[in-house]
Write a structure and sequence with these properties.
about 190 residues; mainly alpha; Arc Repressor Mutant, subunit A; 3-stranded antiparallel beta sheet; 8 helices; 3 strands
């Protein structure tokens, strides 16, 4: 798993030092790794480390340049991704290659409701309807990190981010419909 590098800055180093000192002296023992990350994040004005990471990632996505014009669909990529879905169109396993993962996430994005905000439990239920390998948390996290879904800082509510899909999505969805039709018709 690759490590995401997060820049850390505090507007006032004196306030940072005071906050760190007060939080560290309250403890009987040396804080663990995650506790220390949360202490540092709170000292910089965030609720916890997850909040710091989410804000940093949101800022980095906003700073990214606009994507170039869409290239024609890569049909070979779509054929490879087709193997990851069963005849009902459910994702059977999580692909190893990132470009296949992204395409599978776009398929899930297309199947989840637009212009609707729903709780985490409903998001899990919807994801479970469209995959069969039992890791809705992985899919939920990847959808958010890719910018296809937005979640509240506390992680309680999710909503789909509307954007132009890649050209491969239409091709793959058509292939999935064709796969379902060929298995539905008796020979």
């Amino acid at each position: 798993m690759t490590r995401t590098v997060l820049a850390y800055e505090a507007p006032d180093i004196s306030a940072l030092a005071r906050t760190l000192r007060s939080q560290l002296t309250e403890r009987d023992k040396v804080p663990g790794h995650v506790e220390l990350l949360n202490i540092l994040a709170r000292a910089a004005g965030f609720r916890n480390f997850q909040h710091l990471r989410a804000e940093t990632q949101a800022r980095s996505r906003a700073d990214e340049p606009a994507p170039p014009p869409a290239a024609p669909a890569d049909h070979a990529r779509c054929e490879k991704a087709l193997r990851l879905f069963d005849v009902e169109g459910g994702l059977t396993r999580w692909p190893k290659k990132r470009n296949q993962q992204v395409l599978c996430l776009w398929v899930l994005w297309s199947r989840l409701p637009a212009a609707e905000t729903f709780p985490e439990r409903r998001m899990n239920e919807l994801l479970n309807l469209h995959h069969g390998f039992g890791d809705h948390a992985l899919l939920r996290r990847e959808l958010v990190e890719l910018g296809l879904f937005r979640r509240t800082p506390d992680g309680r509510e999710y909503s789909r981010v509307e954007q132009a899909p890649p050209p491969e999505l239409g091709v793959l969805l058509a292939l999935l419909r064709g796969k379902a039709k060929t298995t539905a018709t008796p020979s």
